[in-house]
Amino acid sequence: MLFCIDEARRIMSRFYCHACSLPQSACLCAHVSPQPCPLPVLILQHPLEAKHAKSTVPLLRLALPDMQLAITEHLAPLPPPASGRWWLLYPSEQALDLDSAGVALPMADIGGLIVLDGTWRKTRRLLHLNPWLRQLPALSFSRAPAGAYAIRKGPGGQALSTLESLAHVLNRLDADFSPAPLHRLLRARVAQFQAHRVPEG
Ligand SMILES: [Zn+2]
Questions:
Q1: Going by C-beta distance under 8 Å and a sequence separation of 6 or more, which residues neighbour residue 164?
Q2: Residues 18-48: pLDDT tens digits?
Q3: How confident is the model at residue 193 (pLDDT cuts 50, 70, 90)?
Q4: Where exactly are the structural domains of the chain?
Q5: Ligand 1 mean position to 54 CA, how many Å?
Q6: Which helix (H) or strand (E) holds 111?
Q7: If you measure from the C-alpha of residue 27 to the centroid of ligand 1, how many angstroms do you get, rounded to a whole number?
Q8: Least crowded by CB within 10 Å, which of 35, 153, 181, 183?
Q9: Are the C-beta atoms of residues 33 and 184 closer than 8 Å to each other?
Q10: How far apart are CA 46 and CA 74, in angstroms?
């Protein structure tokens, strides 16, 4: 049987939304309210996580279009941001807790945020393979709202999705940044999964 790639693409494009790249039955465009990142954000995603159907990173790309995404195990050190330094969002022992009372955030020094995306095991591996990340100052949080991403719980059921973590942290770094559009988009996605309308990968 002859198989033409262009024909296959034409057929597939009928079923996928061009704007959000999701199947048309799961199109989320009506729930997306894009907003700019208040500071440069790069998500370093473990390649195995990128294959996960329930990753929240595709939602973040819709909601924060100027966010950068690197899907790799090895990331070359980044050039410094326009001001300040890159900070890593990771709960290391030395991390500065954004939610801790009395902590004065060194806003001028926080020039950009690197977020690791993957299970704890995969993010530890990313840190191991990219030692320069461990040299960066780190941010963590302790008072984020309870996770709403009911379809995918981390160990102990406490883990927040990457979307919820970033929504909380960006709001703490810039009070003008509203986490609500991100939460609305996540709720729409959860509703789709709960209605079994989204094929699981
Ligand atoms: Zn769409």
A1: 56, 144, 145, 147, 148, 149, 182, 183, 186
A2: 888 888 888 999 999 999 999 999 999 999 9
A3: confident
A4: 32-195
A5: 17
A6: strand 110-117
A7: 4
A8: 153
A9: yes
A10: 9
